[in-house]
Amino acid sequence: MELAAGDRVVYPNQGVCRVTTIDEKEVAGQKLVFVSMQREEDGARVMVPKQKLESIGVRKISSPEEVQKIFAFLRADTEKADLDWKVRARTNLDRMTGGGLQGLAEVVKGLQVLSELRALPTKERELYDNARHLLVAEISAALDIPECNAEDAIDIALFPPGKERPKRTPQEFARGGAEDEDIDLGDDVLGLEGADLGLPEEAEAPEEEEAGAEAEGEEAAPAKKSTRAVLSDDEETVAAGAPLPEEAAPVKRKRGRAPKPKPAEGAEPAPPKKRGRPPKPKPPVDPNAPPPKKRGRPPKSAAAKAETKSDTKKKKK
Amino acid sequence: MIRVVTLDEFEPRQLENFTKALYQAFGVGSEHTATLPAPAGLNEPYDAVKLIEAMPRVPAYEDDKVLFLTSKKLADRDLPTGKAPTSGFALQGRDKAVVSLFPKKNLEEGFKFAARHALHQVGHLWDLHHCLDPRCAMYPPWTPSFPNGEPIFCAFCREKSEQKIRMTKS
Known about the structure:
The structure holds 2 protein chains of 2 kinds. By secondary structure, chain A is an alpha+beta fold. Chain A has helices at 53-56, 64-75, 85-98, 101-115, 122-143, 147-158, 170-173, 187-190, 207-212, 302-316, and strands at 8-11, 15-27, 30-39, 45-49, 59-60. Chain A has a 5-stranded antiparallel β-sheet. Chain A is elongated, with a radius of gyration of 39 Å. Chain A starts with 7 loop residues before the first strand and ends with a helix. Chain B has a single domain (2-169), classed as Collagenase (Catalytic Domain) (3-Layer(aba) Sandwich), CATH 3.40.390. In chain B, 31% of the residues lie in helices and 18% in strands.
């Protein structure tokens, strides 16, 4: 790749940079050609040996034709995100480090589609934001338009005006073919058909929650309390397509014990309950049984009493 | 500091509520700085990009954000993927944004509408991108559910804006 001072390039995971100088420097006795770049966003500088540029993935900014292909890709409704979070994380990391415009668009599109099924966990939300930031910066540079317009252009492809985003179902994400995770272990196979598992109602999670559980602990990122007007920490972010709270507020389940049923009219009111522990039932009395033994030391006999008196008198003397 | 500059006359009490909503969302001071006339030569509907460029300089510190508020209509923008309905525009990561109250007539009627759009545009000034949560003010503003929402951010956008503001202050 031939570069000259003033060229604009894309550094993977860093964004659009401008080449400032290309000069030869001696490092550890070796003469190397270094390319100095400055990130346009904040002016951060980086020096890269020229022979390393390709392996790092530094490339020139995409052409407007390539950007048009990206818009067509974003507009298409064919991309399905992988539901296996490990595979998804690895693939997205590869796409980000690869540094290609198509890779960035795939990350954005994939996570956006996934968000239509359920809210993204924090790590993926950050990844989505980073990918979007890099994509916006490159499209803005490629088409020479303000960043805000570049972002709106992306989102008009992703969220066409006048339409709410569709709500996806886990079935749409199911992959075809006989893969291990797709084997249908129905109730009849497991021998559970018709069996009452005795689970309480709350234990039976809906399908969406099961799908969301794969994100493991990542979703449980605690947000610090603040007095600022934001969605409260108890509320989770809403997946796309879900109605706003004002439109359809879910019925809140009342907490605590259920109220007692009211007695029928005309029926006698139940006698008031005595408080405290109920008395023990008395054992049946047997008339032939010996009288109960008295507890404690048996009383002294008269002779023994006299002896003790005489002993005390002697001691006094 | 967020400096609100109006291009039309608004009720002072309504403006106070408007700046209060901005203060609550970002946690930085917000005030109505001035009322300025629209630049000469611009016709309604205003071209948002040209309007921002043509507005006279407002006295402000380097880190301040200036938000222009108008009741006039802003023209839809022609973008590579189609026309973008425009109720506001911001220079991403910089210092100027504009918000239109149109089609609402005044701040009393369109308070939520204006506050949510203002949060969105000022969010862009602090480098926030569009959000996936329909309840967040950074959700794409042309979606049907956007005007009905509250002027609030989701936890992610709130934290990101806090971080950006903290970095700016330091």
